[in-house]
Amino acid sequence: MVSAGRRGWRRDRSGVVALEFALLAVPFLIVLFFIFELSLDLFEKELLDSALHQAARQIETGNAQNVTDGTTFINNYLCPDAGNFLVCSNLYINVTHFTPTSSQDYYNFTTGNPPMSNGSLDLSNYQSGTFCNAGPSEFLLISAVYVSPSVVGAFLPNVLSVLSNGSTVHATFSQVAAYSEGYPTTKSAGKVAPAC
Description:
The protein is an alpha+beta fold. It has one domain (15-190). It contains five helices and six strands. The strands form two sheets. A four-stranded antiparallel sheet has the order 1-4-6-5. A two-stranded antiparallel sheet has the order 2-3. A hairpin with a 2-residue loop joins strand 5 and strand 6 (167-179). Helix 2 crosses helix 3 (70-81). The longest helix has 45 residues, at 16-60.
């Protein structure tokens, strides 16, 4: 025979809601942060793509031919087109030259991924010292990386995040392949960036 006290305990449902919330709150918050970070990623990607296309046009037309380092290019051409949403100090740029062959097309050059080395983000080729400006009539590949903090990466490593210098970050990557116009070289400010 069951005592009256035990029957009352079985019918007591006062803590069920609190227990259900405790079990569902953490997964719910992780999914919520994932949606926020995914939305932020898409927004940053659109901003970076648009700004990089406009900045690449300055190299193509020769308007940026006197730029010799990535920091100057970012501050004068890339960052102003990105608006106030991207932090300029978190932008990295790499400009390289290439010679297309009959077996390669635009798609082969613009389907890259963020630069990784041993499972970590490697920005060694994206520093200002490796900026390789274009001369007239050259093929070039312009790549940009925007690094920002990752919230979801703290809970779920490798989900919308990469490892960089021991911390989890969010890396947005964009590329533009272009052919510079046959513009005349001029010596504005006493120097012309050497072609690589």
